[in-house]
Amino acid sequence: MTSADAVKLMKQQVGKAAADRVQSGSIVGLGTGSTTAFTIQFLGDRLKSGELKDIKGVPTSFQASVLAKQYGIPLTTLDEIDRIHIAIDGADEVDPQKI
User: CATH second-level architecture of 3-88?
Assistant: First the structure.
């Protein structure tokens, strides 16, 4: 396995772990980036299988919107809701203290 494959596998695992935290009935902030793209895919899989129901996504970018639509995640906007239950986005930078 190349280091690029290892990074992709880790991103997939993190994306799945994030998707697994979403509960039915949630409003979900959908961030942008390669790891979050895996999360959106796994959320779509959970919806399709019936494991997850009645969620709505709030995309932070055009890319997140396109992916959410591709994977069957219903979308809403900040103007239409009063809160987001969980927001998922990648960490662009983490310091040694993880702050």
Answer: 3-Layer(aba) Sandwich (3.40)
